[in-house]
């Protein structure tokens, strides 16, 4: 097993750990830092670590030529589950800011892109992440961390702008995947 794949598996392992933390009763006390509860702080720290492993495993896979079929399958899946876990947690914590409709846009985009990639694999085509897809991922990670840390004590408008910028880039990158791969989709109909 490659180092890159081990890092991806580690990221997958961190996701249930994040979920378990928010249900441990003893971690619900306020900690006096950014009005956070201990469970939320730990969730956020693990989310940051997991997010960094996303960039690390890709870097290692490319630099040391460790790109594998397993990695091509698991890495994007791990990313999607990690991001959706954070979105759903925030939707519960702050439903007035992280709305159901916005989270549904993210979920629909992720299913759509995964479907397009599956159709492309059948045709022997590999779809690499686009510039918009990478920008969407980076913006989404920053927005989620910002919101998880209660806006770092700054005005909520900053977090809202980051959040909606991530949603806009989610739509743009999803449409880009669709239009760039329209031929693969139409051949499958």
Could you describe the 3D structure shown?
- The chain is mainly α and 189 residues long.
- The protein has a single domain, classed as Four Helix Bundle (Hemerythrin (Met), subunit A).
- The protein has 7 helices and no strands.
- It has helices spanning 3-21, 38-63, 69-93, 100-122, 131-148, 156-180, 182-188.
- Helix 1 runs parallel beside helix 3 and helix 5 packs antiparallel against helix 6 (156-180).
- It is globular, with a radius of gyration of 17 Å.
- The protein starts with a helix and ends with a helix.
- Belongs to the CDP-alcohol phosphatidyltransferase class-I family.
- It catalyses: a CDP-1,2-diacyl-sn-glycerol + sn-glycerol 3-phosphate = a 1,2-diacyl-sn-glycero-3-phospho-(1'-sn-glycero-3'-phosphate) + CMP + H(+).
- InterPro entries: CDP-alcohol_PTase-I, CDP-OH_P_trans, CDP-OH_PTrfase_TM_dom, CDP_ALCOHOL_P_TRANSF_CS, Phosphatidylglycerol_P_synth.
- GO terms for molecular function: CDP-diacylglycerol-glycerol-3-phosphate 3-phosphatidyltransferase activity.
- This is CDP-diacylglycerol--glycerol-3-phosphate 3-phosphatidyltransferase.
